Amino acid sequence: MNQLAQFDAWSAGQNYEQYMGRWSRQIAAKFLPWLAPPESARWLEIGCGTGAFTAHILGKCAPRSVLAIDASKDFVAYAQAQVIDQRVRFETADAAKLPAPDASVDVVASALVLNFVPDRIAALAEMKRVLRPEGLLGFYVWDYPGGGMGFIDAFWKAAMEIDPQAAELDEARRFPFCTRDGLAKLCREAGIAATVEPIGIETVFSDFEAFWQPFTLGAGPAPGYCMKLPEDQRADLKAKLARKLGAKGPIRLVGRAWAAKAIVNG
Questions:
Q1: Of 7, 70, 91, 150, whose CB has the highest number of CB atoms within 10 Å?
Q2: How many domains does one find in the chain?
């Protein structure tokens, strides 16, 4: 495991839900109308995580079927327990080796996952392979470079004040392609002519303790880093954030993603 990936502790489904899942559901509710998928479609979802996006597909898009995959067995098990529907099947699989035949699905979608896929070009090639002619491809990622996930951006800026090496773990630095131009370039390199647009929400915390608590759960890069800090440094980080954001609530911060969609002809 490399020095950066050691903090990407995504396997704990319940902890991830408290950290990011609730915001994932809100952005999914805006992404799907923008994607405008057809009804009775055969879907393949890449990176199902806790099943939040899967549930939105099932509830809002009237799919014929959904194959939802994730590289984490723990996440697949969690999603299976949360999303009960005869139209969906969950599998543990790699985004660069999708468990579907050529030209077998109508819609391929990925929610907040592509930045964690090691070979994004290979993953996009696989999406193209499994899509039927005129199939729909859509995905979105948080706007880390633009500070689009405000509570994560605030965390890393405060962390860097007490530990300059934290800069190496900041998603804004790790995922510089998560911009309008970056996604458009990535799609062009994969031979996909995509439309890229922003989708936004507001992340609201009732008070500072509600803001801080998810960072103590260990699920995700920032929480993983936070819980590996010595206790005195963690207390210093908490106090610094409280001063910056205010100890009382509510705390309101931006949540912005960049979304891409394309009709793919193979």
A1: 70
A2: 1
Task: Enter the tokens of residue 21.
Answer: 């899942």
The HSE-up count of residue 9 (CA atoms within 13 Å, CB side) is: 18
Main-chain dihedrals φ then ψ at residue 119, nearest 5 degrees: -115, 90
Contact 144, 81 (CB under 8 A): no
The DSSP letter of residue 64 is S
What φ, ψ does residue 109 adopt, rounded to 5°?
-140, 155
The alpha carbons of the chain give a radius of gyration, in whole angstroms, of 18
Does this model's pTM top 0.85? My answer is yes
Backbone angles phi, psi at 37, to 5 degrees: -75, 155
Q: What is the DSSP letter of 104?
A: -
pLDDT in tens, 65-91: 999 999 989 889 989 999 999 999 999
Residue 8 has a pLDDT of 47
* The pair of three-digit structure tokens given for residue 32, joined into one six-digit string: 């799907």
Transcribe 226-254 into DSSP letters: HHHS-HHHHHHHHHHHHHHH-SSS-EEEE
Residue 8: count of CB within 10 angstroms of its CB: 16
Contact 158, 244 (CB under 8 A): yes
| Other CB atoms within 10 A of residue 119 CB | 12
Token pair for residue 163?
């530990």
Determine the structural domain holding residue 114 and report its residue range: 5-264
Joined tokens for residue 253: 């911060």
DSSP code of 191? T
Block residue for tokens 């800026």: 157
CATH number at residue 106: 3.40.50.150
Which stretches does DSSP call E strand in the chain? 42-46, 65-70, 88-92, 105-111, 131-142, 195-205, 251-264
Which token pair is 153?
Answer: 């951006």
